[in-house]
C-alpha cells in the first residue's frame, strides 16, 4: 500500500481556513438579511432594486461624486474614440499607447511625484512591496518589513511574497516605539501603513518623518482614502503633511475612490529612471498583466483636469459641510475629523436588523459586526459624499433614531 502525502501548511502570513471560518458567517448573515449580494441599477445617484425598491447609497467611496461627473464620463468616451482601442494587449514595457504616458505625466504634475499607473491599488501594492522587500528600491539592503496591524488587506496580502525576500513582522497600530526600536536594530526598515485608514484616522506622518530623517526609515503609505478628498488639488493627507516627500516615502493611491475613476498610481520621488524602469518591469502585474484601459485613462485625465480647477475645493467644501452636518446630528468617535467615514456603534444583536430597517426606509449603510470586528464594537458604517443633499443626510439621521440605532 502506498501513502500519498498530506500537506501541512505553514500559515505564517496567511490562513484561508481561519479567514473563511471567521469571515464567511458574517457575509452569509448579511446576505440572508438582504444587506449583501444586492443587485441594483444606478439612476441619477439612486440605486434601484428590481422589484421597485429604491435607496440612496451611503456606503460608496466616491467622496466627491466625480465618478458620475459629466466631464469624467466624456473623458472616457473621448479617449476611446481618440485612440480607437480599449486596450491594445501588450506588456507596457514593450509597447504602450501615448494615453498612458499622458496620464502619468498629468498625475505626476498634479501630485508632485513620478507616477506609474496600474489597474488597481491592490495589484500595484502586490507587485511593488516584494520589490521593496528585496532591497531594489533603496541602497540594496533588504529591509525588515513592518506591516501595521491595521494595514489594508491589499497590503497585508503581500506579506508571504515579501517574506520570501526578507524578514516580515506585524506591529500594533501606529506603534512608533516598535518602529524606532527596529530602526536601531536593523540596517534598513520599511513600515507599511495606510495614510488614511478605512475605519477613520490618519497615519502619524510627522512622527514618522522624524524617524525617516534620523534612521533612513522607508515608509510605504497607502493614501487611497484621502487622495482628492483632502489637501490642495487633492494631494491627500500624507502629501499635505509629511515633511519627508523623498525616496524614503513610497506611496500608492487608488483612483477609484474620491478621484472618481478607475485604476491606481504609484507616487515616487527622487528615484532615478533606472529604478522606475525596474518597477515597471518587475512590479508584478504592472508588466505581466493588463494596463489601465483607454476609457479609464481618459476619465482619469478629465478628473485630473477638474483637480486643477476651482471646482475641486468647492466639492471638498461640500463634502466637509456634509460631514459636519452628520456630526452635528449623530456624534461618533470620528466626529470633527475631515475623514469621510463614520462608524455609528450599534450592538452586535441589533446591527443587522437596524441595517435592514434603514435599507427598507431608503438608505444603504453597511453593517460591520463580529467576527469582522471585535465583539462590542459593531456598528453601521456611513460614507459621506459631496453630492448628498442636506435633506438626505437629515432624513438618514432621523431614521437612525427611529430604528433605535442611536438613542
Ligand atoms: C486603503 C485601501 N487601499 C486600497 C484599496 C483597494 O483599492 P483598489 O480597488 O484600487 O485595489 C482599498 C479599498 O477599499 C482601501 O481601502
TrEMBL record:
Name the keywords, alphabetized.
Answer: Aminotransferase, Transferase
Cofactor(s), by name: pyridoxal 5'-phosphate
* Superkingdom to which the source organism belongs: Bacteria
Stored InterPro entries: Aminotransferase_I/II_large, AON_synthase_class-II, PyrdxlP-dep_Trfase, PyrdxlP-dep_Trfase_major, PyrdxlP-dep_Trfase_small
Q: Which residues form the Aminotransferase class I/classII large domain?
A: 205-398
* GO MF entries: pyridoxal phosphate binding; transaminase activity
PANTHER family this protein is in?
CLASS II AMINOTRANSFERASE/8-AMINO-7-OXONONANOATE SYNTHASE
Q: NCBIfam families of this UniProt entry?
A: PRK07505.1
- The name on file for this protein is Aminotransferase class I and II
Amino acid at each position: 500500500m502506498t501513502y500519498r502525502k498530506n500537506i501541512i501548511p505553514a500559515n505564517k502570513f496567511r490562513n484561508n481556513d481561519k479567514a473563511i471560518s471567521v469571515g464567511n458567517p458574517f457575509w452569509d448573515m448579511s446576505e440572508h438579511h438582504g444587506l449583501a449580494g444586492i443587485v441594483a441599477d444606478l439612476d441619477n445617484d439612486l440605486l434601484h432594486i428590481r422589484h421597485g425598491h429604491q435607496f440612496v447609497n451611503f456606503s460608496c467611496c466616491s467622496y466627491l461624486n466625480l465618478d458620475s461627473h459629466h466631464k469624467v464620463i466624456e473623458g472616457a468616451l473621448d479617449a476611446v474614440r481618440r485612440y480607437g482601442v480599449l486596450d491594445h494587449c501588450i506588456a507596457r514595457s514593450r509597447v504602450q499607447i501615448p494615453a498612458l504616458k499622458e496620464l502619468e505625466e498629468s498625475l505626476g504634475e498634479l501630485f508632485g511625484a513620478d507616477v506609474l499607473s496600474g489597474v488597481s491599488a491592490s495589484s500595484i501594492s502586490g507587485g511593488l512591496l516584494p520589490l521593496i522587500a528585496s532591497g531594489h528600491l533603496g541602497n540594496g539592503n533588504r529591509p525588515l518589513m513592518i506591516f501595521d496591524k491595521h494595514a489594508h488587506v491589499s497590503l497585508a496580502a503581500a506579506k508571504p511574497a515579501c517574506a520570501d525576500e526578507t524578514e516580515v513582522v506585524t506591529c500594533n497600530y501606529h506603534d512608533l516605539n516598535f518602529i524606532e526600536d527596529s530602526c536601531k536594530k536593523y540596517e534598513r526598515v520599511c513600515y507599511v501603513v495606510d495614510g488614511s485608514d478605512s475605519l477613520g484616522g490618519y497615519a502619524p506622518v510627522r512622527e514618522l518623518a522624524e524617524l525617516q530623517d534620523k534612521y533612513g526609515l522607508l515608509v510605504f503609505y497607502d493614501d487611497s482614502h484621502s487622495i482628492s478628498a483632502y489637501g490642495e488639488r487633492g494631494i491627500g493627507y500624507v502629501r499635505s503633511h509629511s515633511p519627508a516627500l523623498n525616496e524614503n516615502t513610497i506611496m500608492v493611491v487608488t483612483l477609484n475612490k474620491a478621484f472618481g475613476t478607475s485604476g491606481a498610481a504609484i507616487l515616487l520621488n527622487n528615484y532615478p529612471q533606472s529604478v522606475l524602469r525596474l518597477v515597471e518591469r518587475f512590479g508584478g502585474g504592472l508588466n505581466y498583466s493588463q494596463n489601465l484601459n483607454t476609457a479609464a485613462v481618459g476619465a482619469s485625465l478629465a478628473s485630473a483636469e477638474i483637480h486643477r480647477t476651482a471646482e475641486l475645493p468647492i466639492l471638498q467644501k461640500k463634502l466637509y459641510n456634509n460631514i459636519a452636518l452628520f456630526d452635528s446630528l449623530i456624534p461618533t468617535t470620528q466626529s470633527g475629523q475631515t475623514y469621510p467615514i463614520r462608524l455609528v456603534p450599534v450592538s452586535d444583536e441589533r446591527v443587522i436588523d437596524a441595517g435592514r430597517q434603514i435599507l427598507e426606509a431608503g438608505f444603504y449603510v453597511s453593517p460591520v459586526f463580529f467576527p469582522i470586528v471585535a465583539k462590542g464594537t459593531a456598528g453601521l458604517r456611513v460614507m459621506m459624499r459631496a453630492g448628498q443633499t442636506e435633506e438626505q443626510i437629515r432624513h438618514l439621521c432621523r431614521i437612525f433614531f427611529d430604528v433605535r440605532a442611536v438613542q
